[in-house]
Write a structure and sequence with these properties.
This protein is of the alpha/beta class. Helix content is 35%, strand content 14%.
């Protein structure tokens, strides 16, 4: 798997988790800005994305991605867990937010704060194309047909005959800024395991129906003592606040629906900070400055 880590070794630790269709570079602008504010950051490519392998024959569920978080943390030369580590914060986008919720619900004592960008796990309906019943039986379908189905979802143009991306990669010797579309196109055309991992995540991943994990996490955030264990109460999340950022033109995650569900679980506005920035679902790239401004205030970064 591919892990990126940089920033001052004594800085505030922040783990960033990307979404289902784009790899870690999607969050690079936010990571760079956090490092400029003195943070130590880790980004990693989820299984089957970017430069991380696709584990065949393994269910791509919350447990698999939660274990991957521990692999990423363990790769660091400095401690991210344990009593001397000081804990860490999470900034997560889309599917990454769903993974973060599940992880935090089970290991709250490791985490100081959570920021969710375009949160995906409270969707009331899956995006168009995600609910295709054929995804339950991927081995029964021709590879080219599968590629066309996934290409339609992620917005990549493919050859009508082969399902291959008609894409000539950028000169790798030149450092050029990449947008979400270019990153997605590169990944689709070059990562042989992406299709498998994407489909298996759609079928088994934490995209919806996370009510149990959400209840655990929200009980901790709102400081509910009933049923809480000592490690929950020692967590930086206990009786705290959640920051959720939406794009004002997002057509996948709807602020009104998600905010209403969050308020119902958290009780009142004391435990949630809702912000809106310009952009659609991929706002972390074009509106990274706006997102970082809110994250900096929320985390008390200078």
């Amino acid at each position: 798997m591919r892990v990126y880590e940089w920033g001052p070794s004594d800085g505030r630790k922040v783990l960033l988790i990307h979404g289902d269709t784009t790899p870690a570079p999607m969050l690079a602008p936010i990571a760079e800005a956090l490092v400029a504010k003195g943070c130590r950051v880790i980004l990693f490519d989820l299984w089957g994305r970017g430069y991380s392998d696709s584990p065949l024959g393994v269910t791509h569920d919350a447990t698999l991605f939660g274990n991957q978080i521990f692999y990423a943390l363990a790769s660091s030369p400095i401690p991210w867990t344990g009593q001397q580590s000081g804990g860490f914060s999470i900034v997560a986008f889309s599917l990454g937010g769903s993974i973060a919720v599940s992880f935090a619900a089970h290991y709250p004592y490791l985490i100081n704060s959570i920021v969710l960008l375009a949160l995906g796990s409270l969707l009331r309906a899956l995006p168009e194309g995600y609910g295709n019943p054929l995804y339950q039986f991927p081995r029964l379908m021709p590879t080219g047909y599968l590629r066309k189905l996934v290409a339609r979802i992620v917005g990549v143009k493919v050859s009508a005959d082969s399902g291959e991306v008609p894409f000539v990669g950028a000169d790798v010797k030149k450092k050029v800024p990449l947008g979400a579309a270019a990153i997605t196109e590169w990944q689709f055309g070059h990562h042989k395991g992406f299709i498998y991992s994407f489909i298996d995540t759609v079928v088994h991943g934490p995209l919806m129906n996370q009510h149990s994990d959400w209840k655990k996490l929200c009980d901790i955030i709102r400081g509910a003592s009933a049923g809480a264990v000592p490690t929950d109460q020692r967590s930086g999340l206990f009786d705290s606040k959640l920051l959720v950022i939406f794009g004002d033109e997002d057509r996948l995650v709807f602020k009104e629906e998600v905010s209403a569900d969050l308020l119902q679980m958290l009780g009142d506005l004391r435990h949630i900070d809702i912000r809106v920035v310009p952009g659609g679902h991929g706002f972390p790239i074009p509106s990274s400055d706006d997102a970082v401004k809110h994250v900096g205030i929320f985390m008390n970064l200078t």
